[in-house]
Design goal:
- It is a single chain.
- This protein is an alpha+beta fold.
- The chain has three domains: about 70 residues, no CATH class; about 80 residues, Nucleic acid-binding proteins (OB fold (Dihydrolipoamide Acetyltransferase, E2P), Beta Barrel), CATH 2.40.50; about 170 residues, de novo design (two linked rop proteins).
- The protein is built from eleven helices and eleven strands.
- Strands 4-5-6-8-7 form a five-stranded mixed barrel. A three-stranded antiparallel β-sheet has the order 1-3-2.
- A hairpin with a 4-residue loop joins strand 9 and strand 10.
- It is elongated and about 65 Å long.
- The N terminus is likely disordered.
Length: about 325
């Protein structure tokens, strides 16, 4: 018996179980776990040397029967997260893609989450903000506890909002990886899902998210100085060139075949979104043609950076076409 295990002994009258390994199933091997010295469930009425809380603080885990097993404290960590995507795994589990402020994008396994009686079942829906207690695993980290912080239920009840939310999720998974700590981007993503639920113009909220997320990820397009000559851009018909990283003045834009003309209203809205908070941007009333131009400009920039087109964009366009029929 090690010194640590001896210190877990009960202070007071002797107890027949404490200080010994818990007997395993009848006829089977011992569990290798140590009984919690709480004086409860052992026939002892005296207070224990250490409370269960102190044992957990020392790196011990307690199961429902009050049995304590010594584990490394580094195995468990708690984090807030956004569930971006989920897939079925095995017979009753779910594999979750969770975006967190500290750990970046995580792939987590929620064991038994597909069972009707599971406490996790209603807390691992897409586009929900949750608090997680996670145990590190050999291949996949495992969700031990989950508590819902914000359900964003309307995003799953409305098909158009669901498509926009899937686009937000795909954008995050495309630009981030595990270990990419970016709390401002996490806060922006949570705020965007909230805005999609109640904004007067959800599409504008999406354009605001795209532009601000690009800045937080280090891909902010240059909208105030010409990429080539560094001259201050005037409120005229300039050119947008994704390969150069932003806007070109009329004189230099004509020299690049791939540079596209940038309409003045679109140019003004882009600069306004880049420099003003959402409270002011959300009050803008934008014409449909300007909306389409904004989407085209930002999509061309995102596709150039990711070197691929996001699949959710095609689904959003399909919904629009069907809505017009």
């Amino acid at each position: 018996m090690t010194r640590m295990k001896k210190r877990l002994l009960y202070r007071g009258p002797s107890c027949p179980h404490l200080g010994r390994r818990h007997p395993g199933p009848r006829g089977g091997a011992r569990t290798g776990r140590w009984l919690a010295p709480t004086g409860q469930g052992t026939g002892c009425g005296k207070p224990s040397l250490f409370s269960v809380e102190s044992l957990i603080g020392r790196g011990a885990a307690v199961d429902r029967q009050g049995v304590v097993s010594e584990v490394d404290r580094g195995r468990l960590y708690r984090t807030e997260g956004l569930i971006l995507h989920r897939t079925d795994f095995g017979e009753a589990d779910r594999l979750l893609a969770v975006y967190t402020p500290r750990y970046g994008l995580l792939r987590l396994l929620a064991k038994g989450a597909r069972k009707p009686t599971s406490r996790k079942a209603g807390h691992v829906e897409p586009f929900t903000c949750v608090s997680l207690l996670v145990a590190r695993g050999r291949n996949l980290d495992i969700v031990s506890q989950v508590e819902m912080l914000e359900p964003f239920r309307r995003l799953r009840e409305n098909l158009e909002l669901a498509s926009l939310s899937y686009y937000v999720a795909e954008l995050i998974t495309g630009f981030t990886e595990e270990g990419d700590s970016n709390p401002p981007l996490f806060d922006l993503t949570v705020a965007t899902l909230s805005r999609l639920c109640g904004a007067r113009d959800p599409t504008l909220a999406l354009r605001f998210f795209e532009l601000r997320a690009l800045g937080l990820l280090g891909y902010q397009p240059q909208l105030f100085l010409c990429i080539t000559c560094q001259a201050q851009l005037e409120p005229v018909a300039n050119y947008f060139y994704p390969a150069a990283g932003g806007v070109l003045c009329p004189r230099h834009g004509e020299g690049f075949p791939d540079a596209v003309p940038l309409a003045l209203p679109t140019f003004k809205v882009l600069r306004y979104m880049q420099t003003h908070p959402w409270d002011q941007v959300g009050a803008l009333r934008i014409r449909p043609e300007t909306h389409l131009d904004l989407e085209s400009v930002l999509q061309s920039f995102i596709v150039y950076q990711l070197e691929r087109r996001l699949r959710s964009v095609d689904f959003i366009h399909r919904l629009r076409r069907e809505a017009k029929v």
